Amino acid sequence: MPRDELERRIRDAVTREIEGGRPVLEGLEGRVVRRLARPAVRSPWWTRAMASLADTRIGLGWAVVGGVVTLAAGIFAGRGLFLNPNALSAAATDLFTVAAPGAKAVAVVGDFSAWQPIALFDHDGDGVWKVTVALPPGRYEYAYLVDGRWVGQDPLAAEYLRTFGKYVSVRYIGGDGE
Amino acid sequence: MEGGELELIQKSLQGDLEAWGEIVSRYKEAAFGIAVAILRNRADAEDAAQDAFVRAYQRLDRYDLSRKFSTWLFTVTANVAKNALRRRRPDPLPKEVWTADPAHMVWQEDMERSVREAVWGLPESYRAPLVLRYWHDLPLEEIGGVLGLRLGTVKTRLHRARALVRAELTARGVIRDAAG
Q1: Of B129, B135, B147, B179, which has fewest CB within 10 angstroms of its CB?
Q2: First to last CA, chain A
Q3: Which residues neighbour B136 within 8 Å (Cβ) at sequence distance 6 or greater?
C-alpha cells in the first residue's frame, strides 16, 4: 500500500472516531460555564469569609460587607423557606442585568460566587449592563456593585432581604426555589 | 488569531464567562480530539476536555497573548488527558471501548475496521502525534510543542506509528506486504 493511501486511511479512521464523539460534546459550553460560575465544593462560610478578607483584589470594607451578608443570609435562611417564591420567567433565569448609564464598572456578587464579583458588560453602550451566569435550580441572594456602590434592590428580583442596613436581592431559578 | 478571538480572551480575562463559553464552543471538538487520542475513550475524553477548559480559564492570566492560543490550549488539554490516563489503569483495550457504540456497528468493511483497530490500538505515545498530525493537521513543530517533544522525536514517532499500522494490516492479511 503506497504511503499516501495509508495516510488517507489513517486520516479517515481518526476522523470517524473523533467526529463520532460529537454528541457527547453537545452542551459542553454550559457545563464548563456552570462549573466556573459556582465553586465545585462549597467550603464552610467561615472559610469563605476568611478568604474574602485575605483577598487583596477587593477592599476590606466590601469584604466585611460580604461576610456580614453571608452571615445574615444564614440567619434568615429559615425564614426564606416560608416565603412564597415569585419565580422569574424561564427566559430571565440566568441573566443578570442592570441599567447603569454612565457607569465605568458593574459587577454582581452573590452566594453563587461566594460573594466574589462577576463583571457585567455593556457591549453596545446603551447603559444596560449584563452577564449570563448559568446556575442550577435554587434560591440565590445577590446584589450589584455599580462603580463600587452597593445596589441591593434589583427590580427583577423575587424579593429583598434587609440586614444591617443593606438590601440583598433574592431570585429563584427553576421555579420552586428548592 | 481568528476573528474576534483576542477580544474573547480579553473579556474572559475580565471574568466574562459568556466570552469563555464562545471559546469553548470554537475549540471543544479540537480539544476533544486530543483527549480522545490520549485516553481512547469518549466519555473520559469529554471529562478531560471539560476539565481542560476549566483549568485553562483559571490559568488564563498565564497565557502569553503573543503566542498562538490554540497551541497553549491544546497543551493544557494534553496535560489534563495525560494526568487522567495516569490515574486510570489499566488502559482499556479498543475493542472493549468501541464495540458498545452503535455508530460503529455499521462499520463492517474489513479494511476500514482493520485500520481503525490498528490506529486506536497503538500505544498512546504513537497515537497522540498521529491524531494531531492527521486530524488537527498541525505542523510537526506544533505537535512537539503540544506534547512536549522535540522535533526529531515527533518525526520518529510518526514514522514508527505508520510502520506499526502497516505491519498490523499485513499481519491481518488485508494488505499483502509491508513495503510501500
Answers
A1: B179
A2: 63
A3: B30, B33, B34, B74
In Å, how far are A26, A27, A112, B18 from A98, measured between CA atoms? 31, 27, 18, 17
Reported as a pLDDT band with limits 50, 70 and 90, residue A140 is: confident
- How much is the pLDDT for A85? 37
Provide mean pLDDT across the span B167-180: 75
CB contact under 8 A, A7 and B111: no
CB atoms closer than 10 angstroms to residue A126? 9
What grid cell was written down for A169? 436581592
Angle between helices B151-172 and B140-147 (to 10 degrees): 100
Given a contact cutoff of 8 angstroms between Cβ atoms, the answer to whether B52 and B81 are in contact is yes
Q: Please say whether the beta carbons of B180 and B170 come within 8 A.
A: no
Q: Does the reported pTM lie above 0.90?
A: no
CA torsion sign, B43 to B46 to B50 to B52? positive
**Closest among A133, A141, A37, A39 to A85, alpha carbons compared:** A141
Whether pLDDT at A114 is above 80: no
Taking residue A77's Cβ as centre, other Cβ atoms within 10 Å add up to: 11
d(CA A47, CA B103): 48
Contact flag B20-A32 (C-beta cutoff 8 Å): yes
Residues of A in contact with B135 (CB under 8 A): 11, 14-15, 18
Q: Judge contact between A175 and A169, C-beta under 8 A.
A: no
Q: Tell me the per-residue pLDDT of B93-140, one tens digit each, with 9 for 90 and over.
A: 444 344 445 554 444 467 888 898 899 889 999 999 999 999 899 999
Q: Which amino acid is at B81?
A: A
A69-97 pLDDT, tens digit per residue, is 655 665 555 444 333 334 333 334 568 88
What's the confidence (pLDDT) of residue B158?
A: 96
Indicate the residue of A10, A18, A131 with minimum beta-carbon distance to B36: A18
Contact between B121 and B19 under an 8 Å Cβ cutoff? The reply is no
